[in-house]
Amino acid sequence: MQYLVSVIDDTAGLATPDEMATIDVFNDRLQAEGHWVFAGGLGAPSSATVIDNRGEEVMFTDGPFLESKEYLAGFWIIEAADLDVALKLAAEGSKACNRKIEVRPFL
Amino acid sequence: MSVVDVREVITQAHHEEWARVVASLTRSFGDLDIAEEAAAEAFATAVQRWPTDGVPPNPGAWLTTTANRKAIDRIRRENKRDDKQKEAQLLYDDDPPKPLDAVDDERLRLIFTCCHPALAMETHVALTLRMVAGLTVPEIARAFLVQETTMGQRITRAKAKIKAARIPYRVPSAEDLPARVSGVLAVLFLVFNEGYLATGPDTDPVRHDLTAEAIRLTRLIRDLMPEDGEVAGLLALMLLIEARRTARVSASGELVTLDEQDRGTWDAALIAEGHRLVRERLAARVAPGRYQILAAINAVHTCARDVRDTDWSQVVALYDQLVRLDPSPIIALNRAIAVAELDGPEVALAAVDRLEHKLAGYHPYHATRADLLRRLGRSQKSRAAYDKAIELAGNTAEVAYLTRRRDQLG
What we know:
The complex is a heterodimer.
Chain A: E1 2-9, H1 17-32, E2 36-41, E3 49-52, E4 59-62, E5 71-79, H2 83-97, E6 100-105
Antiparallel strand pairs in A: 1-5, 1-6, 2-5, 3-4
Helix pairs in contact in A: 1-2
Chain B: H1 3-29, H2 32-53, H3 59-81, H4 84-87, H5 106-114, H6 121-132, H7 137-143, H8 148-164, H9 177-196, H10 208-224, H11 229-242, H12 245-248, H13 268-284, H14 290-303, H15 312-325, H16 329-343, H17 345-353, H18 356-359, H19 363-375, H20 379-392, H21 396-407
């Protein structure tokens, strides 16, 4: 079972060197224990472009699809047996990156 | 056996077997939804068949077998419709099947799943009442004054989340157990309190169905976890409050406060059982949690044959202990009520007034102030406090009591 673990941020700042170091430790653990699938940090929402090619012509729009105070700053994709395992890992992830986190199952 | 007797047997079987049937089907089929529906169908079949065919020698086994068959029928129907459904192995359990021991009872798994921390508190209550207590959706909706469709959606959404996010169907590991048990106890206490002081202009002031259900489920947890002090404490607390139920509301539908209750109408058997549990916890010599302390406070009250015999210093000492565990303003308010009996209303009022900024929207705060001001002869201020309490109170019997008290002010 895979879960998307999203990092929710509401500050402009990137992770501090200390936060990066604890995230690295956490990532190593995910890999060592077989939970790691993928992870990455994202550029600021202002660097996003929204594409809509449902019509005749492709449309590009500058900026994120949703303007909000909180935004997705990065994510993990983890492998976990069930939600209890995922929640426990996410709780540690939240501590490691010092941000709020959302867990959602893949279908 | 007469039709009436058969109906009684079915009601009894519903109380005793519902959770067991739902739990065992959830375990076999890995799907709460299928388990719930098949259990409901099995009971409906019993209602149809038992009056003519007679009650089977082992009703529980009959119900489980019938429900199993119904579940298999449904899965077959759905597999024909959609093969993908077959893959949806939903409620997940990677433990190998074990013989049933105390903590591994299937029903306990069911309760922990219903009260999973990834679900909202109101969902815990609704799911527990549906899956474990076997109340129908309309019954639960009525109890919590929400639309039936709203309650139905809440339960459906919860079942869908359990399935999609793979909330596990198991008793939590030893390290997580204390926190998870306290979550379950909070749900049961909430159900009990809603029954004990029901809100809403059209509900009975005391909902015996809810208090009885909460006690029944707490007894079940107690059977499953007999060593847990807080489980025993909560059961004792509920029993000692339930024992006073009939004395709490007068014939005219008015709340009767503890000092004015006819103590002869208290249920002696429930009190004896509650006291036994409190003594058992005292003998355990383990630092008590909040439910055990609350039970001990209620034990002091129910020991006094007359309100004048109440050992108020003991009550205040227990509240002091509780404040250390839980420094909430509500506990402080209840402590002040006991202080009024020990040190007089003046001292108590000073303590109550200090809570104003935290409890201004809480009707017992105003009701307590009104009573203390009345006892101090400050009628005008007392009247204003009664007005505020009446405005905020939701329980019909309590409103009636507060109104009479206000109107009696000189």
